[in-house]
Amino acid sequence: MATPLRALIIEDSQSDAELILLELRQGGFEPTYERVETAYEMTDALRRQTWDVILADYTLPKFSAPEALALLKETGRDIPLLIISGSIGEETAVAAMKAGAHDYLMKDNLTRLPAAIQRELREAENRAERKSLEKQLLQAQKMESLGQLASGISHDFNNVLTGILGYSDLGLAKINLEHPLYPNFITIRKLAERAAGITRQLLAFARRQTIEAIDLNLNAIISDLLKLIATTLGEDIRIKFTPDAALKTVHADIAQIEQVLMNLCVNARDAMPQGGALTIETKNIHLEKADCLALPNACPGSYVLLEVIDTGTGMEEKVREKIFEPFFTTKSPGKGTGLGLSLVYGIVRQHHGTIQVQSAPGKGPPSKFIFHPSRNPPFPNRPSLPSTERIGNDSGGRR
Question: Distance between CA 369 and CA 84 in Å, rounded?
């Protein structure tokens, strides 16, 4: 079966382009292509389409392969560029390879073109996979460092709060309701309790909470929470629940899973200030190797998915990269602590799940919270990468 190939051909001769396409078809490819002759046409083609390979003549009347290489570098895209020329010399070819060309071939001998493209496509895939893993590792190490910092601060802060609460109780015990200082002691105690709640969220982010896990069905948890979710979100947001009737059970803490779901839904609500639609779905899924590249430290296998999808405002990439960090928020001052999604992140990690964000400006994201079925051990045959976490996906537009 022929392999689809999207080829951008930089060539001023249509007949030469046809010879290249013929060789590709004979080599097992099914090419779709566009032929360009100028820098403007190449820029436009790169903007409109994703290409697997670029095949460039070395010299054209208004363009050249070195110029094409420079233009490609400016875009930051990793697309193999092969030079196909009728008169390129060895020194010129070596210089082109040093400049970033992936290979060069002569027009009168194209027999190794399909093999060269197959090789470059494999190497491009390996580079993309390696880059994805490096990015995941750096993010995992960053979040691990933040977790350790949050844990240390929370414990120290808790010690201070214990003293404040203790002395406020002692003060309240020595005065009655009519005493002028009674309201002050009550306010001190309420503020200390509020601060204690923040430290509990930080401890959840740092995976220092105690969990009481049992085998449970996510469908039942969601069904019990739907009325509360509807009340919390308000009448302007339509809620749809699509459960998988054959959903497998997971091993989890009921209270913490309820907290994750509520936080995701509230976050989605904040991304839809003018109202919208919220969809909650559950399903059994199977992750292939390619799927795991987008999920930090996930392995191929069977999973249970909880997905929250909103029609909110969406997020830019620089926002998505920070949404799980403690105290990060894009909301107005006083509208949130920036700990809601940090709490979600910590709970998901502690349950050996995975959480992933998919969003773009103008397009609300699906929130994917992925569990292993309870009958399977967490991440079987898990590859050993230092300091990496297992996460899942979050909802909503604005943070």
Answer: 48
Task: Judge residue 76's burial from the number of C-beta atoms within 10 Å of its C-beta, 0-12 exposed, 13-18 middle, 19 or more buried.
Answer: exposed
* Residue 287 β-bridge partners: 301
Residue-wise pLDDT tens digits, 54-85: 999 988 999 999 999 999 999 888 999 999 88
Domain 214-371 sits in which CATH superfamily? Histidine kinase-like ATPase, C-terminal domain (3.30.565.10)
Domain ranges of the chain: 3-111, 135-205, 214-371
Per residue in 17-47, pLDDT (tens digit) is 999 999 999 999 999 999 999 999 999 999 9
> Structure pTM?
0.48
Per-residue model confidence as pLDDT tens digits over 140-162: 666 566 666 666 666 677 778 88
Long-range contacts (CB closer than 8 Å, 24 or more residues apart) made by 328-331: 328/399, 329/399, 330/398, 330/399, 331/270, 331/398, 331/399
Q: How far is CA 232 from CA 55, 247, 280, 337, 342, in A?
A: 56, 26, 15, 18, 20
Q: Are 256 and 344 in contact (CB under 8 A)?
A: no
Q: Residue 262: is it exposed, middle or buried by C-beta count within 10 angstroms (0-12/13-18/19+)?
A: middle
CA neighbor of 20 nearest in space, from 69, 84, 80:
84
